[in-house]
Amino acid sequence: MTKKLMFVFAHPDDETFATGGTIVRYARRPDCETVLFCATRGEAGHPGTPALCPKEQLGEVREKELAEAADVLGIDRVILRDYGDGRLREAPFDQLVGDVEARIRREKPDAVVTFPPHGISGHPDHQVIQHATREAVARLGNVHQPFLYYIVIPQSTGIIRAAHTTPDREITHRIPVAPWRREIMEALRCHRTQHLSVERVFPGVLDGDWQLLRTTEFYQSAGKANVISSTELI
């Protein structure tokens, strides 16, 4: 029986920055499908230094970058919305929740992954999409309520790039991703306009060095979860 994992994020590149290894891990399984819901086109970001495109074209360019990264990661379907980068709080919340809920009902994933409430970086868009995803899953009731997980960074890692970490005792699942670090690197490099962020968060990746990339991605269950194995989400 085919399994399905759905990722719900705010911006192009969130999928790779946060969960690239997990996506590849499951995309490579013959019995699993992966789906990405991205709420914005990332048009409020920086076009690079020097600029790789005019600012007014950034949304279009980042849409293409996302498609390239999704291909590298092996994502089966990308659902890209245009709620407004940096303005997700201004979007009608019920509309956003309904959109995510409708997609979950259509896809019927076994598990949904999104940000934790603090959004890791503290970005308001991250926090809004988390809230909307949690509410969308809750509205499903018992019809088809998937496992829900938050991608998190444990306090013990000492990673200073995250504005918010999660106490280690609250982490429920640890997904090994070491075999797919090269794919994470290649997907990160697809987000060319975001090279400043990539280099800041993942030093050396733009030069082809993936050795320092994470070997584990950490999750916190937010309701129903796989209790059989702490190294598998589904």
TrEMBL record:
GO terms for molecular function: hydrolase activity, acting on carbon-nitrogen (but not peptide) bonds, in linear amides. Coiled coil: none annotated. It comes from the Bacteria. It holds the Pfam family PIG-L. This is LmbE family N-acetylglucosaminyl deacetylase. It comes from Melghirimyces profundicolus.
